[in-house]
## 1
Amino acid sequence: MIRTAVLGCGRIGRMHAANIAAHPRARLAMLHDLDAAAAKAVAGELGVPTGSAEDAFGADIDAVLVATATETHADFIERAVAAGKPVLCEKPIDLNPRRVARCAEAIAGTTVPVQIGFNRRFDPGHRAARDALRAGEIGALQQIVVTSRDPAMPPRAYYAAAGGLMRDMTIHDFDLARFMLGAEPVEIFAMAGRQTDPELMAELDDHDSAMILMRTADGVQCHINNARCAVYGYDQRVELLGDAGMLVSDNRKPHELRSYTAARSEAAAPYEFFFGERYGEAFRAQLDAFFDSIETGAPVQASFEDGQRALILAEAAYRSLREGQMLRVEDAAP
């Protein structure tokens, strides 16, 4: 059993802790949060002890999952690697690419598994689409469309720590696009809007919607579209177009019943409400892959470099947004 510590007991930390507690190859060994009451509440639900951050890197712990505030991620990754503890860290590694670069230098050459929490790579539908693409089912890839829309605006306090739409939300889509493309985008163009709550977004200098266009060196086109508020639910789709066909990884619903009445046709259940429900299987598969890396030495499937490259694309998108033009990624990145 892989004795695993979870740092951070917010919404996503609670979910990770519950998944680890239920995992057949792991034991949830301890929880930590700066908010001691939050840590004790989750620990009480799951029947595990709480401890300090230092305890997570002690001899009684085999692996660490980091779900704390973003500004602590790079530091905890460095501490985990220094202690020889495999680490699964939520995205982003940091909001500052220079801090990420320093972290990369600090852990360079390590054999300790470092996995970043890009869970969408592990979604069964998304992965099946990528596997079918690699198997040649649609011929040569020409276009990718990634749709990612939240069901509702997050609370105001969330924005203070999120770091902006591109670094917080779109970063998942940058990673998913790279995962599907199998190549690095070399050009990028971004536009963003303040459509759902213009006053709040202007006050916080943030955006609640965006569209990003990217292109690889061999001409494959990628379109990412985001919205913070889609009133019909959590909208998560990927479309791959090739010269011999198309692949679609679609939204998920609790069930597939459709009803037909005098008032409406093909009425169906709403989409799964948010990321915990929609990507529940993906989060569990992400843990499986992490524990596989620990037990077998297999490379992690969402690496530190993947986290760094996704952030570089986010920064390049912001520069394109400021300058209002398509840019070469290598020129736009800090």
Note: The first strand starts at residue 2 and ends at 7.
## 2
Amino acid sequence: MKFSEALKSNNILLLDGATGTELAKRGLMGKADANLVNPDIVLEVQQEYARCGCDAIIANTFMFNPIYVKTHDIDAPVRESNKAGVEISRKAVGQKKYVLGDISSTGQLLEPYGTFTQKQFYDSFREQAGYLAEAGADAFLIETIFDLREALCALKACKENYSLPVIVTIVYKTEQQGGRTMMGDSAQQCAKELTDNGADAIGANCGSLTPHQTAMVIAELRKTTSLPLAAKPNAGIPRLEDERTIFDMTPEIFVKGIQECIDAGATLVGGCCGTTPEHIRAVANMLKKIINSN
């Protein structure tokens, strides 16, 4: 079954959890070239998620758009890093599960708040998406975007140049007033714009929200769109301890929040920062109970 067909099936699809924090546990904090220099460790992380029963693994290509790489002085080639990320994920899941090519923010602001134009963003996302498609990704996941305008640049770059399905998940800073991004975009505004511009699924990920609060945002999105919805919350709200960012929500509490996200309408669920294979395994076990009870 193609990923586009799986999206339309209304079956709940399980995504993986955090990659960055898992790589950091293995001594690769800040190692942008891990796909090329330490592919075995990236593969180890992704195989562990695959063993949890994930339907799709997200490639370790989060930061590899040309603008982010250039402006953050990342010493890793864009094309090779993206292709290696997809290839590692494919090795982890084989041909029967899905690989999502991960596309995220440029880390810059559009005019007039920053110096970049929408065309520059579009071209950067189009280039990255091309490498992901070339390497055999089943779909694009545009995630951890704080500005609706940037999300639309990425969405259009993917939809206008490639035939793969596109999921777009936005970072919401608050669930109040119908959910708001850092730039003030409401969840319903995001839902309408992303739906109108051809997204195949939309949702929420990361941010300073609990899984329970993410479920409230999912409910707001459902009011405006009939598209499949994705929920990828963090393992709770991060806190700083000894100059380290800590996520300490247990898998038991996390899975209750994911259940609320499903109740609110999400059919793609997984985890973002701080989530581990234990969190995803707990979600997988919950999903099995849902299937067995039907």
Note: Residues 3-293 form a domain with the TIM Barrel fold (CATH 3.20.20.330).
## 3
Amino acid sequence: MFRRVFFSVAVATLAIGTLTACDPPLPPEVLAALAEQTFICEPGEVAVSYPNSMADEASMNGDAILGNCADMFATIADSPSAADLQISQSSEPTAECKAFASVPYAIDAAVVITNMPNFGALNLTPNLASDIFSGKITSWNDPAFEVSNPGYIPEDTAITVIPQTQQNALDSFGAWMKTISGKSFSATLLKPEAELDPLAFTELPYGAIALVPNSLNLVYALNAMDTPIVASIMVDKNPDNAVFSDTTTSIPSAATQFKVTKTETKVVLKHDSSITPLPPIGSDVAPAPYEAIYPVSLSLCGADTKVKRAVARYLLRQDSQGMFVNVVALPENVRGESLALVSKGLPQPTAAPEN
């Protein structure tokens, strides 16, 4: 962490000291470094909507902004339709938001969870997951579980598939399963929605299985009578190589495999399994990537104003991203692109005065 902060400060200081009015726009990585040192405050009030799974971050962000910008207020919107800024699990803002800018804000993942307290862990192959979510396998005593779970003790309990799932969670999970197996993922029992509500998952019945965002699972697990088991995914025939959806290693590793495309108003991410994941700072080896990931989006709605852009810029600062509890911070290159787009029209650093 010290190395990363030192590098950011060094790059930003150099950029500030040498920038002139004739220079081209700063590259995204320099903008990201500058964002750590500088606050851009614009007077006004902006209502921000958050997914239910990010409620903890909402109040912390508002307090942090007010602590550094006395006349800039980021309140929590009553609903997405009443928001100036929408942070959403959906790939697109709601119909009420006429977005003048839309960028990645964080990373989430699709996970398979089950309420089987007698199991210590669960490995799934793409074929096994497909057979469960299409209704081909209906009991936890099916011999197919023993293949991917050595020492598995069969239990004569019916599998209850929870039909509610989130569309982008299903899309990302299905794409990864197809990458591993070469076959399309079948999930005919699932009914995708744009965004799931954690409150809809009060208690999973015994024997249930569901495909949900990892952020929702983390909220649910805090309040569940029985903490759900999160399945690991086998990427080859060796159960020891099954990948678990860890927010500190495997999900951030997969996040470095995104391809970035951009327009004047949008930054879009597409995951590409063929990209070799980058190791974290201080390591020479990248953790095994959990590749069923997708971006959480930040959309700026309605009229284009400086205060909306300033609040969005603040939310994309690394200290704000560090407040995340249930989602994963953006990789630096992606965060730089998001910052570059939302910062358009805001004051930029000027050259240091000459002696």
Note: Residues 1-22, 350-355 have pLDDT under 50 and may be disordered.
